[in-house]
């Protein structure tokens, strides 16, 4: 039983096609609400966590413990005038934040969420190649940043976009190599190594334990892909004003901002699915969604800690890190996991 | 020739982890922010701001007006029965230009003018000048 069937049963009065039509619509609505709540919660968590690490209180005036601060901020951003630079590429400029946002939503739709008590499985996409799909979805977001930089008619924005390209090229390859090692291990036990659900369910121990190096490489590449400090070269405030989002204001800027935090949460979720066993948990298999969220939250806190404690690295060191360190480490990890899979049969 | 000692080369990831741990330790400390209108910090003894005037002690000698470095103090006449103040003049203070140099407090022969801990003197009217009567009132009784 999954959420779609539950909804179809709920709308059974509308006939076969009608019930499924309504079920799909309501599933989409629930999913969008979930993503919106996740975005708001992640930003709130970041602000509180950052404040406590810096011996401050953080937002604490709007609502209880400042919990409504993000809603107030969103209302403020919606009310602000959207200033459009002259000489822009109009269509590309308007559509760029949407591309980032759509990439984020598609990415969230592919994650296997596991089951949640009486509702059953919350997973939305059941595909045999969902691993490829999610990396395809993750590759949509950088396109939005590049389009934003190129269409703004601003030197800083173009430089930020170019750095974004450098970031994606240098960190995509180690990331995919570490995933290949993972699929190699999984395909010893399942026929569909590319299916995220199968990949999760075969993890009798979390793959982060035999694949420590892969986890390390993937996590760093994930941080670099999400582009925050220490890898925020695309929008380094002190050199480029704000990178690709320099010319954006109002809600369009807010979408980039939410895209950043959403990609942190999505990346942490992906790491917990691939390396920490996803919805597998010690006691009840009905609480898979909870286990996934707990693992994700821990990873999000670690990612924020990286953000808040390490200063930005130079652009050449950054690219070197991808090509000269992470890529060889990922290749070595591939060999090690080959030995582990074929030689030791893990 | 002085030999320059090269620093020991550390393993890169270890230093990063150390930095992260140091930052993480702050999570368990109390925030040092003072939530101002609700909480107030203890004011130090030597902190002075608002000038007070004791109308009964003032003899109208104008020394405070003379010693004020940026002419924040001006003498104004005030019809009040005080046998020691024959000319019936008292100082008024413009807090917009006052720099709290405390010269007036030091020079005053009768200790009529003195500075206090009171510092919340925000007001909505345009003038920052306190008349002699206002100087003798506590801060919450002054019309703002």
How would you explain this protein's 3D organization?
- The complex is a heterodimer of chains A (346) and B (144).
- Chain A is mainly α.
- Chain A folds into two domains: 1-79, no CATH class; 89-344, no CATH class.
- Helix content of chain A is 66%, strand content 1%.
- Chain A has a two-stranded antiparallel sheet with strand order 1-2.
- In chain A, a hairpin with a 3-residue loop joins strand 1 and strand 2.
- The two termini of chain A are 31 Å apart.
- In chain A, 42% of the residues are buried.
- By secondary structure, chain B is of the alpha+beta class.
- Chain B has a domain at 51-141: Alpha-Beta Plaits.
- Chain B is built from four helices and five strands; from the N terminus they run αβαββαββα.
- Chain B has a three-stranded antiparallel sheet. In chain B, strands 1-4 form a two-stranded antiparallel sheet.
- The radius of gyration of chain B is 26 Å and the shape is elongated.
- The termini of chain B are far apart.
């Amino acid at each position: 039983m999954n959420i779609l069937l539950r909804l179809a049963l709920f709308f059974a009065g509308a006939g076969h096609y009608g019930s499924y039509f309504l079920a799909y619509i309501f599933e989409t609505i629930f999913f969008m609400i979930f993503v919106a709540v996740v975005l708001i919660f992640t930003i709130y968590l970041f602000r509180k966590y950052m404040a406590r690490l810096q011996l401050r209180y953080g937002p604490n005036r709007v609502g209880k413990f400042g919990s409504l601060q993000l809603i107030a901020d969103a209302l403020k951003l919606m009310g602000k005038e959207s200033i459009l630079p002259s000489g822009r590429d109009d269509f590309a400029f308007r559509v760029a934040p949407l591309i980032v946002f759509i990439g984020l939503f598609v990415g969230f739709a592919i994650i296997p969420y596991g089951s949640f008590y009486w509702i059953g499985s919350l997973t939305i996409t059941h595909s045999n190649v969902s691993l490829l799909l999610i990396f395809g979805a993750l590759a949509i977001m950088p396109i939005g940043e590049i389009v934003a930089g190129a269409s703004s008619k601003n030197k800083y924005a173009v430089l930020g976009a170019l750095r974004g390209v450098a970031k994606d090229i240098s960190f995509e390859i180690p990331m995919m190599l570490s995933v290949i090692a993972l699929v190699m291990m999984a395909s010893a036990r399942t026929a569909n190594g590319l299916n995220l659900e199968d990949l999760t369910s075969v993890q009798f121990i979390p793959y982060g334990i035999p694949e420590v190096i892969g986890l390390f490489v993937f996590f760093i590449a994930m941080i670099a892909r999400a582009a925050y400090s220490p890898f925020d070269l695309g929008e380094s405030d002190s050199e480029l004003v704000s990178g690709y989002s320099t010319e954006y204001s109002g809600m369009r800027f807010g979408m980039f901002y939410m895209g950043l935090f959403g990609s942190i949460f999505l990346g942490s979720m992906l790491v917990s699915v691939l390396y920490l066993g996803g919805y597998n948990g010690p006691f009840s298999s009905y609480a898979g969604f909870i286990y996934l969220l707990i693992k994700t939250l821990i990873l999000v806190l670690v990612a924020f800690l990286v953000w808040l404690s390490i200063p930005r690295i130079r652009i050449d060191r950054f690219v070197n890190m991808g090509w000269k360190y992470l890529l060889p480490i990922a290749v070595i990890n591939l060999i090690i996991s080959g030995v582990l899979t074929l030689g030791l049969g893990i | 020739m002085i030999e320059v000692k090269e620093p020991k080369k550390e393993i890169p990831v270890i230093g990063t982890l150390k930095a992260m741990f140091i930052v993480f330790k702050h999570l368990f400390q109390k925030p040092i922010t003072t939530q101002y209108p609700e909480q107030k910090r203890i004011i130090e003894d030597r902190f002075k701001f608002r000038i007070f005037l004791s109308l009964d002690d003032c003899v109208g000698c104008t020394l405070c007006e003379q010693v004020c470095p940026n002419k924040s103090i001006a003498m104004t006449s005030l019809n009040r029965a005080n046998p020691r103040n024959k000319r019936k003049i008292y100082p008024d203070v413009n807090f917009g230009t006052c720099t709290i140099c405390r010269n007036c407090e030091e020079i005053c022969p009768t200790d009529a003018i003195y500075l206090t801990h009171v510092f919340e003197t925000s007001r909505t009217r345009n003038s920052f000048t306190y008349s002699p009567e206002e100087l003798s009132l506590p801060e919450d009784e002054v019309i703002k």
